Amino acid sequence: MPESAYHRKGALNIDTSDKQIAMDELDKKSFEKSSVQEVEARPTSTTSTEPRLSWKQELLPWSGYFDHVSFWRTLLRPFVVIASPVVLWATLLFTTCISWLVLISITLSQIFSAPPYNFSVSAVGATNVSSFVASVIGTLAAGPLVDGVVKLMSKRNRGVFGEYCLRVFAAHADRT
Amino acid sequence: MVTYLVFTATGFFAWGQSLYQEQPWPVPVIVCMGMINLGVQLGTSAVVTYVCDSHREQSAEAFAIMNFIKNMFAFGLTFYVNDWIAGQGVRDCFFVIGGITIGCFLTTIPMYIFGKRARSWVFRYKVLDRVLKVQ
Question: What residues of chain A lie within 8 A of the CB of B73, using their CB?
């Protein structure tokens, strides 16, 4: 298929600081005597440096990648972020938060199939409904809580939006 | 974050205790599990918001590495959890989990005190600029 996506290198470079002297052929002939030189600032337009595809190549349904970012480097990028203490602490808390939920769901059948509860298989599955309802309530409550407290503190600070996240954590203590 | 701790820790201790005392099923299923999940939602929302706000450009990579480590841990957890509960009993097991939750929460206190210093350390020594510059 004919492709129209290319890397256009100079298309967005509208830097008007460098000027070019342009002499049209027509102007040169018609204004030979005065030899007017036009100094203009133009966007530098470079032609595409990719070779033109032959007609047979244009019929192919797939014409390769246009992004030259290295795949392996992108793969390794997240692992560098762990060097930040913020991310380290957040990973610890996030892991412990969610892993206990995994643990509960794994052991749910072991706990509830045994006596004295003697749940049937579908009843064990039905115990997850309560966790679903609680998650919905928690999700609905968490967003306004965090944003509301940050807004409040920004108002008290007369419009300066700072890093209030940890004070949000402490502010929850005022409400408990 | 304190709300997270209150809900989650209470939920775990109550879950263990109510299962040990074999109370009628609405007590552990509805009340305790509801509290645990509510607390977890609050905790994860707060933590993820903090990370995204402090590392705005690298928030995608930060969230990716957090998810990766969480999945690794949960995967390893599936191997020994059933034996642990069968061996130690439900009550002691969940009391230990509640204690670990409180312990992890206590790491929030140094984070609260040194948080600004930690973030400025990252930006002063350009620890994460390798991630930004690589393009």
Answer: 95, 99
